[in-house]
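Researcher: First entry.
Model:
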Amino acid sequence: MQTEKRILDIAIECGYEHEQTYIRAFKREYGLTPGECRESGRNIHVTTPLHLFPNNNVCGNLVYGPNMVMIPSFHLIGCIHRIEIAEAPTEAPEAAKQFWWNKRHKVLHPVEPNIYYGLTRTPDPSLSWTYYLPSMRVQNMKDIPDGFTGDTVPASLCVGFRYIGNHHYEEISELRAEALYTAIDRLAKEHNGRYELLDSEFFFEKIDIDAYDGQYCQMEWFAPIRVKYT
């Protein structure tokens, strides 16, 4: 996903003597060939040595993870906000609601009409603020409405968490958001620096509105991660 190298060259770099041996092993692990993986844009779940804590109680709800996932590159269009980091648990959910209620319909031809993306980027770790983009996923950047912004999330190995709450998705409050980040911070500290969480580069949440069944909502959260080799 992150390169245009030939499959043969990738196979050799991974220690395989023959391209077909690599392709068979890849398909056995992931259910599709490397070429199909590159073309499909599917998320690829990676078997990980991370210790998976089964859940964290978040205000009476649950956070599952972490999982390691290879995220393909994708495009977003939305309305960008500059938000102070200290105010993010309050202001980001409010910006998300306003975008979903009032502005998402201006994004033409969304790939996933019922899925919300909230992308956070930190232009400089020394700053006290971030850019937050409430957005929809699109096929390309050809049609960006006036007043909207486009961004491309690079193909990345990410750590992912899944939040399940017994409430409406619009009720993801400041308290719940802070509890979720506490669970994520636990990952970074549990492994004594073995894994580097690259959330200073970007991170995003993903909410499938159709997943709300009248009682429970779901939210996924992803950030790049790097394994430190010693």
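Researcher: Second entry.
Model:
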Amino acid sequence: MTGYLLKNCAAVIVDEGNGPSVRRNVDLLTKGPAIQAIGENLSLDPLPEGTIVQDASGWFVYPGLVNTHHHFFQCFVRNRAELDWTKLSVIEWLDRIYPIFSRLTEDCFYHSSVTAMAEMIKHGCTTAFDHQYCFPRHAGKRLIDRQFEAADLLGMRFHAGRGGNTLPKSEGSTIPDAMLETTDEFIADCARLIDSYHDAGPFSMRQVVVAPCQPVNCYRETFVESVALARDRRVQLHTHVGEGESPVIEARHGMRTVDYCTELGFAGPDTFYAHCWELTHDELRKMAASGTGVSHCPEPVYLVGAEVTDIPAMQAFGLRIGLGCDGAASNDNSNLMHCIHSAYMLQCLTASTRQHAVPAPLDFLQYATSGGASLLGRTDIGRLAPGMAADLFAIDSRRMDYVGTRHDPLSLIAKVGIGMPTDLTMINGRIVWQGGEFTGLDEAALFAAAEAALATVEF
């Protein structure tokens, strides 16, 4: 069984369950999928069979990042001037972009998934959750199967959010008919995916989340049946909440979205929502009381121009918080590392308007690691400690970029930012990215295949 001994790490961010701390000038030993030990002079004689020694001098070693909200398919619809948020109203933007989504093929979903996950791995992300709610009828039902295929190719730990939309545009949704499913279709495919892929065991590389797209685009029964299936199969629940739709839900159902979801049972320790920027403090307190978590996606704030999410209040009320890239339609990259810096800086920008203090820089790193693990229901990832999954990334701090910063690795990412790919990314004990290359893969070939698939899309 292969293992690695990372020798002479300048700093390792260790968390044995009592919060992160920095251990200086130590070694880190892995065996198979797990961390075996972190300490000084681990040059065991002899080393466990199959152990590969890696010089880690100058390296800062961090727990792998955990992405908790994305839409991989949108990587094929980014950096396009004709879809610029600043030149269109939200309704105009939706009317232009959804027909494009509806023309994507099965191959597009596969290659856009490879594209998103590759970028995440380069920037230290080791676990990816994707909210795949786009199912054009012509593309078939095996789109998430292809996402698992892409994750296997890259070695990514992948949680698939099986999304869906059931309410027709004629009844108030924003979804073209070509992307609609019935509730029965949606639930049946969620069950198929759980049966085919979901692994609840330690160090699982594949899990499934029941994730209807959002209340405004689904019938009530879709959410009711989602709760029943998820609780029966013991999987997580996810949806979009609090991104401007609450007045619509109130007009339809007589209550805002948090109360609506709570009434349906779509809340609790097995549930997390994306965004939540428009929620009141009372609604945030209700979420905290139920154990419902939030995936904060900071970078869409720049494009959409909406309110800056009140993370200080969420932290003060005890909500579980994770970070997400969000889809490339509202964030044109898949760099969760950058989101840590963006999230912190946005809160600093609005500090004078808040009732509660901005959380410490370290807290933003935790949102992207142990916080994300909590949202996904994982206790085996998100921290570096013996017995935890060997999910980590390393940066060589011996660069001009880090002069004057090396005294505080805990705050480095949030305050300074890391503007380049990692020197190493390891997932489940396997090095998947090192020295500017994907292990065992030809990036040029991946690029050419993705570009060829993109060329089939009609804009």
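Model: Note on the second entry: The chain has a mean pLDDT of 95.
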